[in-house]
Specification:
- By secondary structure, the protein is an alpha/beta fold.
- The chain has one domain.
- The chain is 20% helix and 36% strand.
- The strands form three sheets. It has a five-stranded mixed beta sheet, covered by helices on one side.
Length: 198
């Protein structure tokens, strides 16, 4: 499993449990599961009826959220995209027998300010001018919870996946497009592996 796939799997596999753990910190209208994808993927994620050109054209403009799934979480067209931004390798021993690896990863979170309706036509409340900013804030809280809760590495299927020892959150930058009514965050994450034998 490469580093970007690791990050996508970490978020996707822990998303619903994080919402449950956060409880009332996440309002009911924002207890949602976005599309979570690898920037390199050409899959159109959840949009199977009108897939477009794949991952490079993922759609968040649909002003409808889907029905609630079995975990009580609503599937939405909101988008989280994971990517690798850089890698650093260090050789900390005199004989270069091991290496330490650091991966700077990027997580882009996107949502659209619109008046959401569920697939049955009922309107989601609250609506109005704060919906987009409230949704992006709550998506960020869920991402932050997952990363901080797994800061000492993540165990998947009974083994430490990829042997990442540390998962560290870094900076957060707003990336809004007011003309298109899109709210966004760019979140920096560091994945660290230590003492990899050569």
């Amino acid at each position: 499993m490469d580093e970007t796939t690791f990050l996508v799997s970490l978020l996707a596999d822990n998303w619903n449990a994080a919402i449950t753990a956060l409880g009332s910190d996440i309002p009911a209208v924002h207890r949602v599961r976005p599309q979570i994808m690898d920037i390199r993927s050409m899959d159109s994620t959840r949009n199977t009826t009108n897939p477009g050109r794949g991952g490079n054209r993922a759609r968040i403009s649909r002003a409808k959220d889907q029905d609630t799934n079995s975990d009580g979480v609503i599937d939405t067209a909101d988008l989280i995209v994971c990517m690798e931004e850089s890698q650093t390798i260090e050789y900390p021993t005199f004989d270069y027998s091991v290496r330490n690896e650091s991966y700077t990863m990027g997580i882009r979170i996107r949502t659209k300010q619109d008046d959401r309706r569920k697939s049955d036509g009922t309107r989601l409340a609250p609506s109005g001018d704060t919906f987009g900013r409230d949704r992006i804030e709550n998506l960020y809280k869920i991402v932050r919870y997952i990363l901080e809760n797994n800061r000492r590495g993540w165990i998947q299927s009974g083994s430490v996946t990829e042997n990442f020892k540390h998962i560290e959150m870094g900076s957060r930058v707003e990336q809004n497009d007011k003309k298109s009514r899109i709210f966004g965050y760019k979140v920096s994450v560091m994945l660290k592996r230590f003492s990899v034998s050569l």
